[in-house]
Known about the structure:
The structure holds two protein chains of two kinds. Chain A is mainly beta. Chain A has helices at residues 2-18, 50-54; strands spanning 82-95, 112-128, 131-142, 145-154, 157-180, 185-206, 211-234, 238-245, 248-262, 267-281, 284-294, 297-306, 312-315, 318-320, 327-342, 345-359, 368-380, 383-395, 402-413. Chain A contains two helices and 19 strands. By secondary structure, chain B is of the alpha/beta class. Chain B has 13 helices and 14 strands. In chain B, helix 6 (199-214) packs across helix 13 (412-434). Chain A binds chain B through residues 32-33, 99-100, 102-105, 107, 202, 204, 209, 211, 213, 215, 254-256, 258, 260, 262, 264-275, 315-318, 321, 323, 364, and chain B through 113-114, 118, 120-121, 123-124, 126-134, 136, 138-139, 243, 246-251, 253, 255, 261-264, 398, 401-405, 407-410, 456-458.
Amino acid sequence: xxxxxxxxxxxxxxxxxxxxxxxxxxxxxxxxxxxxxxxxxxxxxxxxxxxxxxxxxxxxxxxxxxxxxxxxxxxxxxxxxxxxxxxxxxxxxxxxxxxxxxxxxxxxxxxxxxxxxxxxxxxxxxxxxxxxxxxxxxxxxxxxxxxxxxxxxxxxxxxxxxxxxxxxxxxxxxxxxxxxxxxxxxxxxxxxxxxxxxxxxxxxxxxxxxxxxxxxxxxxxxxxxxxxxxxxxxxxxxxxxxxxxxxxxxxxxxxxxxxxxxxxxxxxxxxxxxxxxxxxxxxxxxxxxxxxxxxxxxxxxxxxxxxxxxxxxxxxxxxxxxxxxxxxxxxxxxxxxxxxxxxxxxxxxxxxxxxxxxxxxxxxxxxxxxxxxxxxxxxxxxxxxxxxxxxxxxxxxxxxxxxxxxxxxxxxxx
Amino acid sequence: xxxxxxxxxxxxxxxxxxxxxxxxxxxxxxxxxxxxxxxxxxxxxxxxxxxxxxxxxxxxxxxxxxxxxxxxxxxxxxxxxxxxxxxxxxxxxxxxxxxxxxxxxxxxxxxxxxxxxxxxxxxxxxxxxxxxxxxxxxxxxxxxxxxxxxxxxxxxxxxxxxxxxxxxxxxxxxxxxxxxxxxxxxxxxxxxxxxxxxxxxxxxxxxxxxxxxxxxxxxxxxxxxxxxxxxxxxxxxxxxxxxxxxxxxxxxxxxxxxxxxxxxxxxxxxxxxxxxxxxxxxxxxxxxxxxxxxxxxxxxxxxxxxxxxxxxxxxxxxxxxxxxxxxxxxxxxxxxxxxxxxxxxxxxxxxxxxxxxxxxxxxxxxxxxxxxxxxxxxxxxxxxxxxxxxxxxxxxxxxxxxxxxxxxxxxxxxxxxxxxxxxxxxxxxxxxxxxxxxxxxxxxxxxxxxxxxxxxxx
Lengths: 414, 458
């Protein structure tokens, strides 16, 4: 048994470190030019995986796998002795104004959308007596935008073209530990190290003259932060939680490269700059509660307070203006645990439903997502397969933006 | 010994009597020598005839439109014709030829850079702001306030209004006894109506910096500062400039949301003299690069300049733009020449000559409507039309798109300023000389708006 477990461990630890996805989620930005806005939502604390998505993203008091380490590490104590999980997602978001799209240079008739697929999480947890540990790797933020291309042609010859691409990712490594003080109180703490990059590139070309302009801006990101939580278990029917993510300073190594080339000139003008700046990430505080309505039915509620008014961005030595307000994100959901038997084997299948209210930090325009979520799963012996889907609509910007996510995870547990 | 040597030489280079190896060696030596000689002659000729660094007296290559009339006139002038290409006649012109062309009122464009050898401009070392050695809005704000702090008796920064996105429009006043509005000639320099014309921020700002930093050591700078009030608004369109830095380098207009999916009003088509008089020199279409807005002075940026201008008593105004190396005076809205054209032309010619003296770079000049294209609602027509003061648009380098268009290398900022400096000094000096005091007592200057750096931009 120990040898078998060891083999699983090796396989899954390999997955943790090597099966990292290329790109996943995408977020919108409303009437602003901020390249650093995560794709999907600004509120990226406690990124939801398949099981929690289905119940409205609630993950402060209920846990199904090691991804609890990213929201409330104390929940690791509720997991079996060993869990190993990988999660893949398809993210969808629509955009209207971003960068030079619909801000005066390129116009679109409607919203532009993007769907990204990725293996966005892998993690392992170990529960040993009063202690539990987790090691996870996840994609917490993406900075992609729909690519834009415009061209002017005459007689099937492209005379002018303009293209815009933006990609980016923030990958986080989390190491967490949790301790149970007694039957009703436990606490956990996680250390997060995040690295990432962002690239925005614009190329403009006039074919006949050969003139081209290239504007390329990149950022290399690095961040340390702490997260943690307390869990109170009352009579096995009620759970209460308090969680936090500490404010931190994200280091951003920025580089700007601007080039004008006119071969017939011949002219090649380059304007290049670099800087090391800071992005101050806000404090996040959360409260969670769940209640066992029936022996197999849980109701959960999560409240997350984001201190966005303290958010600040230094960029090439300048303090960029970000007119942000604090926001309170709300998630609520139900989880029904059921099972059936087939060929004498018990098959568990949870069913989940939820709602999410996710206000965005910009003061103007004020904007929020309202989302409906649904999920389910199937568990047999040591394996679980979960899926969750979120369908959201944005209110406030007037652009009727949409966001969606489908996530699936495979968990092995002992 | 000599005989012996000759013998040796004879044996070694003995030509027809030597062995074939030696013959071959001799032949190779001759060929190398001849090639070297040819190369040297060619190099000397090249150095003699190819254009070198631009210094006073060096020839320029200029073009004039190819019309039968001009073709004959140019031939009669005995100019050195270089090529006939794409509807233009290219001329290798000496400085005196340029003067002759100006005197003959033949409009020409300097095209020297088209024939220059390829030189990749080295990138300036990184370390400036995001746009390198050019100013962003905040860098300019900091630098202007730093000048005020460093030269408290000579420089004062005024906040003359806000942009659409609530950025401050700053005016830098330079004068002895700067806190007072003395009875002196007042001259205004404007920059960056058009967001992408980054060099147009730098030249007027550097002029202010030059006057202040040389006040203590340069008698000429001191005289100008003592006897005039120089006002510099280097950034009329801060919102647009920030957009060019962060989003799209070739943005021109301000950041007005036209509520139809388009953005921006061309600030330099929004002034109130002959505003919208035709759709040739401006456009009623919000999609256009030269959209003039819904009405004259609809934009806070032009309102600020208008209100500021009307509170003062300027004797001359220059609005910097890029590109094309041209000095233009009214009118822009029509090809008709104003009555004051001789004076306007005289000043423009003076400035062009001074610019050319610095490094040989020629700026053409003439009435705006005739020289470049028609414009209506621009700053120069408005200041001239309402106050009848000499007003100029100076289009800074480069001369054309092939030489950089709206781009100038960071290394060129200082040289472009330096070539314009004598013309700027001349411009101020001219009004000092012509100015007759209107009153004898000091009076308090513009009511000062509190500089509010904490205001949110959006």
